[in-house]
Write a structure and sequence with these properties.
The protein is mainly alpha-helical. It has helices at residues 3-27, 31-35, 42-109, and strands at residues 113-115, 132-134.
C-alpha cells in the first residue's frame, strides 16, 4: 500500500470517527432528563435507566451499522476512483500516441520529416542511440 493510500485511509478513518461522535452526541439522552421525569420511585428509576441503557445500546448498534456501511461505500468509491484514474491515464497515453502518429503522417505527406526517437517513446528504435531522420 503506497503512502497516498495510507493517507487516504487515515483521512477516511478520521472522517468516520468524527461522524460517529457527532451521531452519538446528537442521539444521546441526557441522564438528568431521564431521571427528572417526575418519578421518584427507585424501582421506576431503575426501569427507566435500564430502558434508557437498552435504547442507547440500540442506537449505538444502528450508528455502528451506518458507519460500517459508510466505510464500505467509501472503499468502493476509492476503488472506482482508482479504476477511473487508470482509464484516464490509458486514454491520455493513447491520445498522445495517436497525435504522434498523426504528426508523422502529416509530415511524411509534406515530404519532410526529422524525427528523433526518445528512449521512453512507444516508437523506440532497436538501440537508444539510433536516430531516425527521413528527408
Amino acid at each position: 500500500m503506497n503512502a497516498e493510500s495510507q493517507y487516504e485511509d487515515s483521512v477516511s478513518s478520521m472522517m468516520l470517527e468524527n461522524i460517529k461522535h457527532r451521531l452519538l452526541n446528537a442521539f444521546r439522552i441526557p441522564a438528568a432528563h431521564v431521571l427528572n421525569n417526575g418519578s421518584s420511585n427507585p424501582c421506576n428509576m431503575m426501569i427507566v435507566a435500564k430502558d434508557s441503557q437498552a435504547h442507547e445500546e440500540l442506537r449505538r448498534a444502528k450508528i455502528d451499522g451506518a458507519i460500517t456501511w459508510l466505510r464500505t461505500e467509501l472503499m468502493e468509491m476509492r476503488s472506482q476512483d482508482q479504476q477511473l484514474a487508470k482509464t484516464l491515464l490509458d486514454l491520455n497515453r493513447e491520445i498522445q500516441k495517436l497525435r504522434r502518429e498523426n504528426d508523422l503522417t502529416r509530415a511524411s505527406e509534406f515530404g519532410q520529416i526529422n524525427v528523433t526517437i526518445r528512449k521512453d517513446s512507444p516508437f523506440q528504435a532497436a538501440r537508444p542511440e539510433d536516430e531516425v531522420s527521413i528527408v
